[in-house]
């Protein structure tokens, strides 16, 4: 009897694993198709200068409306794209779309010349030997000013080959492109490394912002990161700002910029345009 039960369990386990593997394979295929057919979208989340109340730019965020499964979040499809190498064509498409969108806004709204468009880069894209060619192409085809493009790298990327990374980041910097370090505070990068890289901006991870108002020690971390950024001549952007209380606190600490649902969720390009149109009346920071 025990033997039979064991066998049954084994089979059920096997079947579930099989279903999961099949499911994953299906999703990979769907993603490959979606990229080929340009079914993914780019959404834009406003980034606000909280000291002046003015719009400072947008972060481009990938969106995948799946025809059967509904909306699949980037936290689910980006890892699949990274594991399969699909991040290379997907990342290039997002970069091109975002540059093109900002360049289009620039033609209608001269004030948009002050905005930056931030694009997330995964480590595979940074290691792509054709990265510079692709970045140059996206800028040339769109006609966007180089200094209006900002590339975001997560802090964990700094753990990779430091020398190699420095070379590529300096080449991007020399082209006039801005560089941001994303999700700062969640990785394990040594603070003493930071000045070795040509970053313009530190983005404070939203997990620190969420806990504002809870207990004291977390606030010291935020204050330390803002002061660090200032000493290294970088801007600080707080991510995931959701309340007036968080905003007031960050303003007092002289954090320059913020993004989060308090100002706006990531928006379709049409909805994002309303932000440019109404700026600066729309944004309440006082
Ligand atoms: P991220 O680059 O740190 O982007 C910020 C994330 O925080 C976005 O999640 C955004 O929607 C979310 N967010 C913004 N404000 C708030 C808020 O007030 N509250 C909360 N709870 N969340 C907020 P999203 O769009 O789901 O993207 C998740 C991550 O996926 C991104 O984190 C980024 O690491 C990655 N990702 C998204 N698009 C791309 C892309 O085109 N390329 C690459 N390589 N990664 C991407
Ligand atoms: Mg980002
Ligand atoms: Mg982030
Ligand atoms: Mg994040």
TrEMBL record:
UniProt subcellular location: Cell membrane
EAL domain segment(s): 24-280
Protein name: Diguanylate cyclase/phosphodiesterase, putative
Organism of origin: Acaryochloris marina (strain MBIC 11017)
Organism ancestry: Bacteria, Bacillati, Cyanobacteriota, Cyanophyceae, Acaryochloridales
Full-protein positions shown: 601 to 886 of 886
């Amino acid at each position: 009897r025990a033997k039979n039960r064991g066998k049954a369990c084994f089979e059920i386990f096997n079947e579930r694993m099989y279903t999961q593997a099949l499911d994953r394979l299906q999703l990979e295929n769907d993603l490959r198709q979606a990229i080929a057919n340009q079914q993914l979208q780019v959404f834009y989340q406003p980034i606000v200068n909280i000291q002046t109340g003015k719009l400072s730019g947008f972060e481009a965020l990938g969106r995948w409306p799946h025809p059967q499964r509904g909306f699949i979040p980037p936290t689910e499809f980006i890892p699949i794209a990274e594991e399969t190498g699909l991040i290379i064509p997907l990342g290039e498409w997002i970069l091109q779309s975002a540059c093109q969108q900002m360049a289009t806004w620039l033609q209608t709204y001269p004030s948009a010349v002050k905005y930056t468009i931030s694009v997330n880069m995964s480590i595979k894209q940074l290691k792509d030997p054709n990265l510079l060619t692709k970045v140059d192409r996206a800028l040339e085809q769109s006609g966007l000013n180089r200094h209006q493009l900002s590339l975001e790298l997560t802090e964990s990327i700094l753990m990779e080959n430091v020398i190699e990374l420095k070379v590529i980041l300096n080449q991007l910097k020399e082209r006039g492109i801005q560089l941001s370090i994303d999700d700062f505070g969640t990785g394990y990068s040594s603070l003493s490394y930071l000045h070795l890289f040509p970053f313009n901006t530190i983005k404070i991870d939203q997990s620190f912002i969420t806990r504002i108002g809870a207990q004291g020690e977390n606030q010291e971390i935020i204050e330390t990161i803002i002061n660090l950024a200032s000493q290294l001549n970088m801007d600080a952007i707080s991510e995931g700002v959701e309340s007036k209380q968080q905003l007031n606190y960050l303003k007092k600490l002289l954090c320059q910029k913020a993004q989060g649902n308090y100002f706006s969720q990531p928006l379709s390009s049409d909805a994002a345009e309303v932000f440019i149109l109404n700026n600066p009346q729309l944004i309440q920071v006082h």
